Amino acid sequence: MRDRYRVLVVGAGKRGMHHAAAFQANGSFDLVALCDIDEARLGAAAAKLGVTAKSTDARQLALAVRPDVFCFCTLPAVRAEMVRVGIESGARLVAMEKPVALTSAEGMQIRDMLEASGAKAVVSHQHRYGAHYQKVKEIVESGALGRIHTVYGTATGWMMHMMSHLIDYIRWFNGEAQAEWVMAQASGRGKLADAHPSPDYIAGFIQFANGVRGLVECGAGAPDVPEVDYWWRKCRIGAQGSEGFAEVLTGGGWRVVSKRISCSGGGSMNYDLDMPPYIQQIADWLDDERQVHPCNFASAWEGFEMMMACCRSAAQGGQVALPLASADNELEMLRAALPRRKALFSMPGNAKEYAE
Predict the structure, then answer these.
(1) pLDDT-derived band of residue 3, with 50, 70 and 90 as boundaries?
(2) Same-domain status, 17 and 166
(3) Do residue 107 and residue 138 come from a single domain?
(4) pTM of the entire structure?
(5) How far is 316 from 179, CA to CA, in rounded Å?
(6) How far apart are CA 350 and CA 310, in angstroms?
(7) Domain of 324: which CATH number?
(8) Taking phi first (over 0 means left), then psi (-120 to 50 degrees means alpha), and beta for anything else, what does residue 130 get?
(9) How far is CA 311 from the centre of its chain?
(10) 218 and 323 in one domain?
(11) Residue 344: inside a domain, yes or no?
(12) Whether residue 176 is found in the same domain as residue 229
């Protein structure tokens, strides 16, 4: 029997603990070290998980323990720095939270580092493991909707939190087709100062190479999902075809109406259910090169390019061709271009989050 893969997790907040616990519960991994810049939080997490190797310095710890898997669940401002640490430590796989980066310039730097190192990487778009997401994917693939012509995703949360998820899942429903161009608009400057910097509202069109049209909306002006009470889970993702539609609500199940079937079911985002298969497929990929993880970096990169192209279009106007031909700082573009007018709300409940 082979040795277990050694894991270091950076970040002992909510998401870091989800990852750490899921790695620890999987027999293919040993959680050997934890890192967090908050000493009190780090100490409590290490005690809870029974981990003795811990530090507030990620690079020092990674070089000391030399993990097989370097997993970081931090705020997005340190993406490139953390990927570099993982590569320097000799990790075979880097596991990271979304988004891939804050700008295309940083994203391309990360992509180039990973390609040069040969390390595998995955991005945690783990909602796709939810039974309600899986059901909609099953329906789309069954042909029950006829010819798919539109895929869509909306979320009332802001872009750097939610748009990466939306694009990943509509790409998934559309067979991972590549995109040719995007066009978008944005409004509101308040969340540009957030730790997940974003326009308050952004909406875009994506033209996929297979002729399918994608629609994405995030933020203050995105439509309500009244079937879902919890604000952060007001996400609607679906596919429309020549014979019907199917959609998933992150916090409220799934539904399908078509010429062949009409039914619905339950389901809600649940880390306890969604994380184990995501972690298991990391082990599968490490075991066998052919079992590429569905959340692999190359796939996440395509979605990230679409998000950055939406930002460029919103800032500069017009359509933006894909793949992106050059690196840039899309956040600075938005800061320079967005007018100093508040975004208008789609529902009163958004006022609390977009009061600036």
Answers:
(1) confident
(2) no
(3) no
(4) 0.96
(5) 19
(6) 22
(7) 3.30.360.10
(8) beta
(9) 17
(10) yes
(11) no
(12) yes
